[in-house]
Amino acid sequence: CTETASCGAGMNIDDYKTGHTGGPCLNIYIKLVDWAEGNYRTNDMPYPRGEILIGGPCVAKGYFKLPNETENSFFEEGGMQWFRTGDIAEIDNYGCLKIIDRKKDLVKLKHGEYISLGSAESLLKTMNVVDNMCIFADSTRDQTVAVIVPVLDVLRSIAAAVGIKDPNLTLEQLCEEEKVIDAVLKELRLHGRRCGLSRWEIPAAVHLTNELWTPDTGLVTAAMKLRRTQLGQQYRAMVLDMYSRLQD
């Protein structure tokens, strides 16, 4: 991550196992700490789990002109600078890290169900119609909704399948067609169930957008990670509308 000068963990050149990020880099300290709210603890079995903290000379002093974020993410302990990554990992018997969740992605719904937005998104993004997506959750509700950036060619195929075959329709126009939205939602539900997602994790409504999410728009980071706060602001009206229609 940027806050640690891209230093953290790395795989050995002769390590061919998949699903992990390797062990700590040279002169880097990594430890896990409990995150009780997410039910991740360092005494979990078979492997300890918790939030990754990175310490060492590579860790930045803080964020430029962002004192609140700096206070929440950086601290000094034992003469060493530490960074709270927000990533949840487990450490296997070989000392390798496996990222399993992210604190900001875990939300609690109305009836107490915890869901990982990032985990659900990563599975649903394997749909061929999805270029990018963001799932939104509200702790006062028991359903999630999503905003999807669709792939134009695939969306045209879906539109044709529901009787909309005008080749001159733009992506923006296709995104507004109710039949197309319903068809995408239907495919999303089927795909989610095939991926083993619970009904809480599968969005109950979707909004299709023709806006590309790039670092220039401020909606994703340079590493193409979702900036949920900015996305929430950008699509607040759409999210409220989806929840309103679910109540009707």
Automatic annotation (TrEMBL):
Any one GO cellular component localisation term in the record: plasma membrane
Every AMP-dependent synthetase/ligase domain range: 1-64
InterPro entries assigned to the protein according to its UniProt record, in alphabetical order: AMP-dep_synth/lig_dom, ANL_N_sf
Pfam families in alphabetical order: AMP-binding
Top-level taxon of origin: Eukaryota
A GO MF term: ATP binding
UniProt-listed Enzyme Commission number(s): 6.2.1.3
Enzyme class at the top of the EC tree: ligase
Coiled-coil intervals: none
SUPFAM superfamilies: Acetyl-CoA synthetase-like
Keyword Ligase: yes
Example of a GO biological process term: long-chain fatty-acyl-CoA metabolic process
Keyword ATP-binding: yes
Keyword list, A-Z: ATP-binding, Fatty acid metabolism, Ligase, Lipid metabolism, Nucleotide-binding
Family (UniProt): Belongs to the ATP-dependent AMP-binding enzyme family.
PANTHER family attached to this UniProt entry: ACYL-COA SYNTHETASE LONG-CHAIN, ISOFORM J, LONG-CHAIN-FATTY-ACID--COA LIGASE
Protein name, as recorded: long-chain-fatty-acid--CoA ligase
